[in-house]
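Input record (one chain):
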Amino acid sequence: MRRRPLLAAFAALPLPALAQGAWPSRPVRIVSSSPPAGASDILSRTIAAALQEQTGQPFVVENRPGAGGVVGSDHVAKAAPDGTTWLTTNVGPQAIFRELHRNLPYDTRTDFRHVTILGTLPLVLIVGGAQPFRTLADYVAAARARPGVLNFGSGGNGTLHHLTGELLNSAAGIRTTHIPYRGAQAATADVIGGRIESMWDSLPSAAPHVRSGTVRALALSSASRSAAFPEIPTLAEAGVPGLVTTNWFGLAGPRACQRRSCRRCMRSSAVRSTAPP
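The corresponding structure, as predicted from the sequence alone:
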């Protein structure tokens, strides 16, 4: 994962507290839209520890999972824009859901102040350690032999994990059945327990289970291999060329509205911003 200096990104914000050199003057919340041990949670805690060390102020991670990240995103969108509540964003609730859902409770382009892109992560297709699949070719062959029988889990409908599974179905000419969960950790537990055959997971979330052997990694969704797991092939190397998906993560806060009469806006300045590309 590539990370940029965080304080430099925050310093660019025209919040009054920052202009006075006093930010943060009280504890700061970083909201993760995934359950504990999910990719967003791991990243949020890494960021919180780094910022706490650099500023001397507490940075507390608060998990608000649900609806593929919508619950946490909506909570931050409606928070006071005072510089003390931030959200670890990702491509699902910030970009994909704009196209899939007409009734999102927030607008990703107008309700957030997007600070920075924190990094990118590949997804990994994992199967339970007791499953017979040793390679992606084994998995594809089994799916072709039994259309619709093999299941793959994800952290929710419309997430990048879900769409990557559907893209694999299309690219490989197979049919597997999607099982959505309220967070990737529940899906992982069912993969390990043998209740579903496979799932697409973020590599940091899957890493401990891959190392322990409780799950087996068949392919990465990125264009190149991971330096941490050089033994895992990409989808192209495993026989499915042209399919690449990458999850980006960013940091955002609530954006004050532009009405001069709004009391929320009087407590903090507003800045126009756009969602990450």
